[in-house]
Structures are given as C-alpha cells and as structure tokens.
Automatic annotation (TrEMBL):
Domain F-box, first and last residues per copy: 19-70
Pfam families in UniProt: F-box (PF00646), LRR_At5g56370 (PF24758)
Domain of life, source organism: Eukaryota
Protein name in the entry: F-box domain-containing protein
Amino acid sequence: MDMKRQKLLEGHSDMDEGEDRISKLPDSLVHHILCFLPTKSAICTSILSKKWRYKWISIPNLDFRVWRSATSEDVYLETDRFMEFMDRVLLLRDMSKLKKFYLVCDGRCDRTRVNAWISDIVKCKVEELIVCSKSQVPYSPFLSPSSIFTCDSLVRLTISMLCDLKLPTLIHFPRLKLLRLMHITFRDKNFSEEFISNCPVLDELSIEYCTWDAMEDFIMSAPNLKTLRIQAPKGVIRINAPNLTHFEYEGRIAKEYDVHGFSSLVNAEIDFCMYLEDKDDIETRREELGYAVIKLFERLSSVRFLKLSFETHKALSLVDNLNARLPAFNNLRYLEVSYICYSRYYKPLLCLLEISPKLKSVNFTHGFGGRLSENGIEVVLPPIVFSKLKKVTFGSFKGDKMELILAEFFLKNAKI
C-alpha cells in the first residue's frame, strides 16, 4: 500500500472516531462560520458542549428580521418571549465590535425596550443598523435614543417605522455612507440641513413615504453624495450635490428648484404627483408651475437614462414653448415612460425625442392610449430623424390606433 493511500485511510479512520475538527478552528473562523447561520441557530450552538457555550457571544452579525412564527396562536405571548430572549442575548453578549444588527418588530414590542436594545448595540460600535416596524399604528412618539445620533462607527443606517423623529442637539455621523429613512414624521423644520450636514461622507440618501410635518423646504449640501431618492415637500428644494450620479424624485411640483452640481448625473427618475393638485389651482398657477418644472429639467440634461411617469408628462405640458426652453439632452441613451401615456400629452414626448440626438431606446412600460388629436382634429406627427435609435418597446401592446401610429412613426424615422 503506498504512503498516500495509507494517509487517506488514516484520516478516514480519524473521522470515524468522531473527531471534533470544527472546535479546533480559531475563534475568528468559527465566528465567521456562525455568521452564515440564522442568529437563533447560531445561539443554539451553546448547547453543543461547554466549549461551545459562549462561542456565539462574539459573533459580529445579529439578525432578528424573521422571528415570528407563521402558525403562532398567541402573538402577544410570542412577542413577550421574543423580548425576553432579546434582553438575555444582549445581556450575555460581550462588548466586541458588531458589524450588523437587523431588527424587525411590530406594535406589540415595548418601545422602551427597543430603545434600550439600540443603545446597547451602539455601544458595540455597530457598523450597519436596520430597525423596522411593521406596525400600522404609529409610536407616539418613538423616542430614538440620542446615542444613535452620535454613533461614530455607523456606516449604514436604515430606519423604517411609523414614528416621530425629533433631532437631539448633537448629531455626529463621521463614517455614515448610507442613510435610508421611511414612514417617519419629521418634527424639525431644519431637519435636512442639520442632519445631512453632519454626515460628511454620505454616499446614498433615501427618504421615502415620510411626512414633512414641520418642513416646507428641503435644503441639503452633500459633496460626496452619489445617490439621492426623495419624496419631497412642496416648498423650496435646494440641493448641492456635485458628485450625484443617480437621482429619483417623487412629489408635487415644488415652489422652487434651486439645484446645483448635477453635471455628473447619469440616471434620473422623475414622478410629479399631479393627481394631488387641485385642477383649478393648476390653471391659476400654470405659469408658476411650468417655470418650476423647467428649472428642474434644466439640471437633468447630462443624464444617460431618464425615466418619466405619465404625470410628469402632464407637468411638462404646462410649459409653453417647451422646445425652446429645454436644453439639449445630448447624453440621453434610454428613455422610459412609466404607466400608460395618453396621446393628449404627446407634445412633451415629441420634444424629448427631438432634443435627444443619441437616443438608442424608448420604452412605454404600459403602452400608449387615446387618440392623437387636438380640438377633434387628428394630428400628424412631424418627422424626427433618429440616427441612433435601435429599440422601441410597448408594454401591454394592444394594437390600438395610437400605438400603431407611433410604431409606424418610429419605423419610418429610425435610421438603424
């Protein structure tokens, strides 16, 4: 028998004897392995042996997003047990550094205890913190511990819950790169200025489904910001973000757009919620609203990808002499119109097609409806040369007359 085969057999013999090789691994490697298990399963390894009893107390990730049973008969009892479990976990865990802490709770969780858990996590120099509530009943208010606002270790922070957010006097996030806030009611008039100015390396900001109770204006300066998603208030929108590459905006037409530093912008998605406006008010303020829309679109001319809602086309239709007022979109390669686009708002579409000489793809995600007419007279589409256009997509194509007219229009004018 050769030596190589003999060694393999010896190794096989050792395994048959039940040698515990995992326990011989360095603690750092064991902790890394435990990170791939659900947190509850990782903690359950404490029953394996005395040696494993406290292995879990230094794992760098704690994930409590899925803890409620789908078949639970008593959700209140289950919540009480979960809170007691969380109290024990954080009491027994050592103070070693935490990379990630994820928590999803609901209205049955005691907010005082939730705040205490967050305070304990902050002391562990956590880098990524996600706290979400599925409750449909708002905390009134949810008093986030002030320590979270001076956590100098945080790199990623997500808070998604129906709660009031009132800022403390001191805010300091020297390492925070990603901030996502959802379903929050802002109680500070200067939230955007005070909060974001204390996040010097912020790279991504999302503010969605929030209520701007005390805020009429959104004002921010973020020199390192690359991604901004915002459902904004209707006051003044003032943004200075010289390195922004991705911009998503949803909301009513603001009173004023004072936007700077969008020259690096690559992707933009704009959804003006015109359905929230009073029809009579739209006609009364037509010129004012149209001017505001143009001020924003002037800053989007560098984009390669542009996604517009049907409501945004309605907003653009408020602008008189649109072709002369919009700058050329010389970098635009992909244009998407989300939701069904109705033919009575065809002029903004034609304008965008005409001022985008390098356009390669157009996508009507929900098709095109209605009749192409003005005052009952059918309109003939003017010729536009598409020297680069390669693809036009109609979602939910039904073969309506308007869709056929548009299809013929693109086929006739596209050169590729």
